Model the fold of this input.
Amino acid sequence: MSSPLLSVRGLKIGATVYPPDAKPHDIKIVHGVDFDVEAGKVLGLIGESGAGKSTIGLATMAYGRGGVKLTGGTVFVNSRDVLLSDRRDVRNLRGAEVTYVSQSAAASFNPAKRIMEQVIEAAVSQSKFSKNDAQARAVELFRKLDLPEPETIGDRFPHQVSGGQLQRCMTALALCPEPDLVVFDEPTTALDVTTQIDVLKAIKEAIRDTGVAALYITHDLAVVAQVSDHIMVLRQGEMVEYGTADQIINAPVDEYTKALVSVRSIDHKEKTPSGEPLLRVQNITARYRGTKFDVLKDINVDLHAGQTLAVVGESGSGKSTLARVITGLLPAREGVVNFNGRELSPELANRSQDDLRELQMIYQMADTAMNPRQTVGTIIGRPLEFYFGLKGAEKQKRIKELLDEIEMGDGFIDRYPAELSGGQKQRVCIARALAAKPKLIICDEVTSALDPLVADGILKLLLDLQKVEDVAYLFITHDIATVRAIADSIAVMYQGEVARYGGKTEVLSPPFDDYTDLLLSSVPEMKLGWLEDVIANRKMQSGGN
Amino acid sequence: MRIPLSAIIGLFITGVYFFCATFASWVAPYGMAETVGEVWEPSRLGFLLGTAPEGTIDAQYWLGTDQIGRDLLTRMIYGGQTTILIATAATILSFTTGSVLGFFAAVSGGWVDQALSRFVDLVMSIPSLILALVILSAIDVTVVTLIVLMGLLDSTRVFRLARAVAVDISVMEFVEAARLRGEKIAWIIFREILPNALSPLIAEMGLRFIFMVLFISTLSFLGIGVQPPLADWGGIVKENKDGINFGISAALYPAVAIATLAISVNLVADWVLNRTTSLKGGRS
Done:
C-alpha cells in the first residue's frame, strides 16, 4: 500500500466557550494542520500548553474532548476517513487500529480491577484475540517493556506497582490489540527523570519491535528527539515547523523552534559564600505525625544572604518536607533551624511576626496557591496591610511598584487569578512573597508546571530580583537544567538524606557518587542517540524498576 | 446579565410569597382571626372552575372559609407570614452557627474538631422531631423559642456540610500561605474559606429552608408549634383536616403553598449556584 497509514489534511478543530461577561462564541483551537505518518514511523508533536497537541492526537481517533468539535479537514487512517465514519466504524477503529496512552496512568487505570484484565480488555472486546491469546500477548509485552515478573505482574492491582511501571503497563495496554497507530500523550511527563529514562527506553524498543506507528506528544523537545523520526512543532493550533528529528534539533529554521532548542541557556556564575549564613539547618530529623519513618535524616545545609541553594532529588526524597520543617508547618523531631542569627521555633504558632515575614514561600501550583475569589490587588496587598499596616493610596502605590517589579502592568490589579496565564499567576505569587520584604524565599518547584519558555522567564525574573532585593532562595526542584541556571550551592537529596552538598561547580563536577551520576545523566539532552548512550554507561539502576 | 426562564419563574413565585408575607395586613382582605361567614363555605375558585358542590349559587370567598367561618385566603396569607418568618429566621440562625462552627472545626483540627464533631454526632443521633417534641413540651412555646430550637437543631446538618467543604479547602496552598503569613483564624475562615465554600452552602440553603417550612408545619400540625389564634400553614391543615371527609379541600391549600414555595426557592438557589460556581471570583 503506497498511501500512508495516517494522513491528516487541513484538520480544523473548534470549541464553544462560555465567558461570563459575553455571549457564548466559537473559538478555533487548531487552524488546519497537515501531516502523514508512515507505518512503523514515529511523529513527535511538540509545543507549549494550549498549542493543540493533545487535541490533534485525539482527533486521529475521531474524538473531541469535552465540548471540542472537529470542524473541518480529513483524517485518513488506513485510507478511510474516520471523521466521516459512523459510530460503529469509530468503535471498531478505537482500541483496535488506533490506541491511546495518556499522561497519568494512575488516573487512567481502574483501581478496582487487576492490571491484566484492563490490559487485554480492548483486544478481547474487539475480538482480535481470544482471552488466552491476549493474556499470552500481554505477558510477552510486559517482558518486552522490562517489567519485573512479567508472568504475574498482571495479577496485581494498579496501586501495587510504581508510577513508572504503571505507565509501562499502559503502553502494554495500548499495544496489546496490535494497533496500527498508538497515540502517546505526554507518557513520561509525570515521572521523575530517573524513571522517565527507563520508560522512554521501553517505549522506544516496544515501538521498534512491534513495528507500530506512533504519534508522540510532549512539551519536552529533548524527550521527543529520542523517540521520533519526524517532529512537528505546533504553536497556538498552527504548524510552525516540520522536519526530521535531526533537522529540528540541529538545524531549526523557525525562530520559535530555535527558542525551544536553545531554552535554558541562562548563564549564572556561582557566588562564593561569605560571612555568617542566613539560614543554617542543623541535624534536622523529621517524620510525619503518626508514622514511624524518618522522612528527613540528619540534614545539614547552610544558605547565605542573597544566594541560592538548590535542593534536588526525585519525588519522595524529602525535598518538600525540608521546606515544611523550615517554614514551621512540620516541627522537626531533632535538630535546629537558625535564621538570621536567631533560632527559629519549630512550631509555626510560636514564631514572631518578623520570623514569618522574612521567610516567604512560593509554590509549584500557582493556581492553588492563590485564593480564586481574591483579585490580584487583594492578594498582593494583604501582606502589605498585614505586616506593614499600609492602607489606601499608599498600599495601592506599593502594589503598583510590585507589579512593575514582576514585569506586569497595574492593569492587572482588579483581575482574578483565573483570568491570568500560568506564567502570570506565578509572577503574582512572587510579588506576594516580595511584598513582605523577605530575606529568604522558599521556591518549591516553582517552574515545574510551566512551559519551558515561560519557566525561563520566571527564572530570569527571580535572578534579577535577587540582585535588586538581595533575597536568598531555597530552590526545590527535580530539574537539573533549572539548577544549573540558578544555583550557587546545591544539596542533592536521596531517600531523606543529603547525598552530596557543596558549591554548584563542585557538586556538578566528577567524581560523582552513584546517585548523583544517575540523576545527572538521566536529564534528557537535545541530542539524537543520547538515550542509548546513557543506558549503556550508567552505574546505578533507577528506583522505578 | 441573562436570567434563565426557570430562575425568573422561581424569583416571581418566591417574590409573591415573600411580598404577601411581609405585607400580610395590607394584602389580606379580612382580619387574621375575624369570623366572616358560615363554616366551610365553598370557594369562589372552585365555583368558577365548576368544581363546587351542586346547588352552589354564589361563592364570596376566593378559597372559601375555614372550620369556624374565617376567610381561608386571609388565613393562608397570615399563615404564610408566620411560617416564612420562622423558617427564614431559623435557616439564617442554623447557617450562621452551623457554618461558622464547621469552618472553625475544620481549620482548628485536633481536639477542637473532635469535640465539636462528636457533639454534633450525638445530637444528630436523636431524631430531631422527637427531640423537638420533648423540648417543646418542657418550655414555653413562642415564636422566638421555636426559631432558636429549630435553628440550633438544624445547624448540626449545616455543620457537617460546612466542615466537609472547609476541610477540602483548608488543605489548599492559599490557606497554607495565609497560615504562614501568620493570619488569625477569623481571617482564614471569613476571607479565605467562606468565599470558596459559598456555592455548596447556597445550594444547601435552598433545600434547608424548605425543610424548615416542613418542620414548623409538622410541629404546628401536631399542636406544639405555632399556637392559635396565630395562623400558620401546618396549623391550617390541622384545623381543617376533618373537612376532607366532607369533600372540603381547605386542608390541601397549605400543601400546594409549601410545594410551590419549595420548587421556586430551589429554582432560585440553582441559578445562584450556577452563577457562583465559576472560579472567576463569583462575579459576572
Summary: Chain A touches chain B through 31 residues (CB under 8 Å).
